[in-house]
Design goal:
Helix content: 55-70%
Shape: globular
Structural class: mainly alpha
Strand content: under 5%
Number of helices: 8
Largest sheet: none
Oligomer: single chain
Radius of gyration: 18 Å
Length: 192
Amino acid sequence: MQDYELVNRIKQGDRALFGQLAEKYYNEVFRYCYYQTGNEHSAYDCTQETFCHLLRFLDNYTERSRFKSYLLQIALNVCRDHFRKCSRRPIPLDTLEQYAGFDITAAEQPAISSCTPSQPSPESQVESRLLIQSALQKLPDTQREVMILFYYYGYKQWEIAHITGVPLSTVKTRLRAGTGKLQEYFQQTGLA
């Protein structure tokens, strides 16, 4: 069943289908919240809050773009609220030296699982994910949001503008600045 059919049936009173909709997108929303918060516990909280908001306001949803974009827009706002409520705790960067030889172009891959060109070991995949997560946490929130939506989720710049509610030119500027800061960070740490 397509998203719009699920949403319409839920709006018509078949609330049992909400579980099917939530199950379909739960992992993606959690992953997005984890990239935003850098903390598993906070990501779980933000993911739950995202689906609570969705359930509460689903009757107001009108089909204008992909449902996934709408859901990630809610997740983005929940993560922003999370940072307003509590102080941000970045991931500690104690052992970055062990990642020598990391290539910044790996961070530009749409999927995390393809962070290295050859078949990486599970350990190196985890190390690469942690390194990228740490680097993303160093970016300002607005740049990190755009970087995650563009590189990890593969959204086009105009879609990101719609999700974040900023002009397209602002998205382009944030994307360029975020990429530049990541490259600079990896060069300074000797990981480029």
